[in-house]
Amino acid sequence: MVRIRRGTVVGIVATVLPLVIATLVAAGLFPGGGERLVTLFLIYVVAVIGTSVYSGNSGIISFGNTGFMAIGAYAAGLLTISPIIQKTALPHLPVWLTGWGLPFIPALLVALVVVALVAIAIGIPVARLAGSSASICTLGFLVIVHVVLVASSDFTRGSQTFFGIPRAVNIWMALPFAIVAVAIARIYRDSSAGMKLRASREDEIASTAVGVNVRLHRFLAWVLGAVLSGAAGVLLGHFIGAFSPKDFYFNLTFLLLAMLILGGITTVSGAVIGTAVIMVIVELLRKLEGGVDLGFFSLPTVFGLTDIGIGLAILLVMYRLQDGLLGVREIDEQLPLLKRLAGGKAHSAAKPATTEAASIEGDVLRVENVGKRFSGLVALEDANFEVRPGLVTGLIGPNGAGKSTLINSISGVVPPSTGRVTVGGVDVASLPVHRVPIAGLARTFQNIRLFKNLTALENVTVAASAIARDGADPVDLAREALFEVGLGDVADQLAGTLSYGAQRRLEIARALALKPRYLLLDEPAAGMNPAETMELMAVLDRIRTKYRLGLLVVEHDLKLIMRLCDIVVVLNKGQQIAIGTPAEIQSNPAVIEAYIGRRRSVAKHEPSKTEAPLLNLDPHTSGKTA
Ligand code: ADP
Ligand code: MG
Fold it and tell me: Where is each ABC transporter domain found (predicted)?
């Protein structure tokens, strides 16, 4: 079920209003040329949005959507073409395809089913890929579609013009499609599925760690975008009435990508703005291209002026505005008036947490003989300990001791080479990473991994919606988690713009929204100033008692560890060298040896430093690195 929020509706209205106005003006004042231009604009809007559903939300550029346009155009064209023209134009068509002469809408629906089936088949491999490998794969798809269309001359007339398609699309037909495309794309973008895909675009590892099934969401967006592109192809085919495979090839692909990138790839309103701007540039330059006579001065014909113009426009915009004209937020999230209409600030439903302590007695997190090798290097060997609900377990050791590797192994981000991690007897390592949170484990990262171009609230909502709660709105759960760490006031700010300490706490809120039984924190206080550290300590102490959370905390700040922890595990060079209460650890000879050994070697390099008293180390002298 999709919950449609007020902000989404305001955004859709704000984005389609200019389309409606352009249509009314063109149809009323400029019948003919102007009307045709706006019709083409509306069709391009559908096409650009088709690409943006996948590319904008996943961050993977797709060259393949033009292929879906081609499939849509040809499939629908075969069904709508008049039987008489068909006899002469396509004499070798198989009998089951001849003589349909369907009206536009039924043909469109059949074509969209064909497009969807192809998209599903291609989407299975494409969704497994990320970044440029996925892009190249979509490019390959575009080339294959082109070659197949050219080769299937019985169906398509090969590279010759496929003609006789009824011109069923005018401006009044194109407008509702553009409106529906905007609405679908925007509802998807704001839905929990769209938010999850956007999270994976910002940080794939962190998104899987909060329960996002990245492949699934890439696949869904790919198919949805393909269907929209297919519709754009059907519209274009029935607008121009005659086309050949080259009309759906590189030129169109680059034109559409230029529109998408110029406006801002991550937003629906950006897609519309980019389409409009490029169309204006193309129209102006096309007039100039043919040479202009100004009476006293005449410009010569300049070949390729349009393409050069588009290229320059992109260069200029990207140079000044990396994220396109509109940036990373929708227009209604930027204009104050629209923000107010959409409900504006987070109405702080500062509810006290209603959630029961989630932990069940006996569900201990067990780390059994866990080890990890990276090719030749043994980063970790035979870690053995338990983390109990309501207790804080500290994990200390010099740099490179294997602490992060251990956290990564437990949380499934880097599967262990040996050993087992279980929660209440369930083997966590056998789960796919995105299902580890369901087993009750959540984590933060040593180097902050937030979804920078999502708001603080969205960051946490992604996690909240990973855990199915009967009926509870993930956004409410997310708000609750933000209040828990004292970030209720910055819910609507982009995560990347928050202060360092706030970003660290936001990561904790995001993990908390998974309602974990165990929270693994990799150096949560690293880089914090003393005030921020104090605030963090208070938060950790509160949440562990409130939810009876089991905490596993990696920390360089030994004072903090000694104060916070019930149990301390010490790693050195991949070996677990000690486990015990803070007091026991402080007097453990092996631990002293490990730390003194390191101190000596530090002292050797920095003779000015005197040996500090052991395990009373101030964070600034504890030899920490970034
Ligand atoms: P810590 O967090 O205790 O500082 P790490 O767990 O990050 O230590 O690293 C332990 C050892 O494993 C180091 O020698 C590090 O270089 C190595 N290591 C960590 N991650 C990788 C990796 N992905 N590939 C190869 N070696 C790694
Ligand atoms: Mg580390």
Answer: 365-598
Closest atom, ligand 1, to C-alpha of 401: 3
Tokens 């197949």, residue located: 148
Tens-digit pLDDT profile for residues 18-61: 999 999 999 999 998 999 999 999 999 999 999 999 999 999 99
CA 224 to CA 205: how far, in whole Å?
Answer: 24
Q: Which two tokens stand for residue 150?
A: 């050219």
C-alpha 583 – ligand 1 centre gap (Å):
28
* The pLDDT value given to residue 195: 97
- Pairing outcome for strands 518-522 and 441-443: parallel
Distance CA 15, CA 329 (A): 13
Tell me the C-alpha to C-alpha distance, in Å, between residue 15 and each of 268, 279, 330, 367.
Answer: 8, 17, 9, 52
Which residues have C-beta within 8 Å of that of residue 82, sequence separation ≥ 6? 101, 164, 166
Q: pLDDT tens, 228-264?
A: 999 999 999 999 999 999 999 999 999 999 999 999 9
Nearest-5° Cα angle at 519, 514 to 523: 125
Pocket test for ligand 1, best of 381, 399, 403, 404 (most atoms within 8 A of CB): 404
Residue 468: Cβ-neighbour burial (10 angstroms; 0-12, 13-18, 19+): exposed
For residue 408, the ligand 1 atom closest to its alpha carbon is: 6
Which residue, by CA, sits nearest to atom 24 of ligand 1? 374
**Digit-coded pLDDT (tens) for 485-520:** 999 999 999 999 999 999 999 999 999 999 999 999
CA distances (Å), 25 to each of 14, 42, 44, 429, in order?
17, 14, 18, 61
Q: Which ligand is nearest to the CA of 415?
A: 1
Q: Is the pLDDT of residue 614 over 70?
A: no
Q: How far apart are CA 491 and CA 189, in angstroms?
A: 18
Which residue's C-alpha comes closest to atom 17 of ligand 1?
379
CA dihedral 118, 120, 125, 130 (to 10 degrees): 110
Tokens of 23: 């249509």
CA distances from 245 to 119, 251, 293 (A): 19, 11, 35
pTM assigned to the model: 0.90
Ligand 1 pocket check: which of 205, 373, 374 to mutate, most ligand atoms within 8 Å of Cβ? Answer: 374
